[in-house]
Amino acid sequence: MAGIKLSVSGLDKNFGSLQVLEKITVDIQDGEFISIVGPSGCGKTTFLRIVAGLEESNGGTVMLDGKEVTEPGNDRGFVFQNDNLLPWRTVISNALIGPELAGEAQQAARARTLELLKLVGLGGFENYFPRQLSGGMRQRVNLARALAIDPKILLMDEPFAALDSQTREIMQTELTRIWEEGRKTVLFVTHQIDEAVFLSDHVLIFARRPGRLRESVKIDLPRPRALSIKRTPEFVAYVDHIWSQIEEDVRHSVLHEGG
Description:
Rossmann fold; alpha/beta; 2 domains; six-stranded mixed β-sheet
């Protein structure tokens, strides 16, 4: 690792009288893959949006490479749950939106984005339209679009939630492959504990609202990881431990808050 990439200190967030995040403090190393899990309503997405500069905090600081985050910027790439591809644009045109907005030289940006499409498994599909793609392929475009601005950190908000279980597992292996290629720092929000363990170097466990960092679990499993690792005792032990930390909060969320 090459030092701290993202430093969050004492982060608070309120929506009116509702406190969503309370004193979140965490340091993330350059090149780490970090997942966040916790019950519905614990502030996972809000935390990600604050790091992205899409939401203001009510206290604390977010520092990226030593610079305070106060607004959105091209140093952060955001992958949303829904791909939000523009239906009238081709795959390559959708992936080029970021570089276009940044005013990058068209030819150089196009050449780099074509390579990214190959990286995410969409070589040869650059002239297809979103309606011609499967859900998994559309999310690959979504990922390529985020990578096209060459961000310092990649923020991913449940990007595979809308996919069927088989496609989701394949996308997990593809994401690990893509991450291994470039070792971007990744912050990944998910409700799936096994997904978090499979992908991550550390899993951050958020307690129920107001969201607090309950534990940071180091995932000491060898890389690269195949899906078969999910059947090993070591993997299952991580999943069981994380579930034991959030089970009561999830039960409360479902039974008392409608989560």
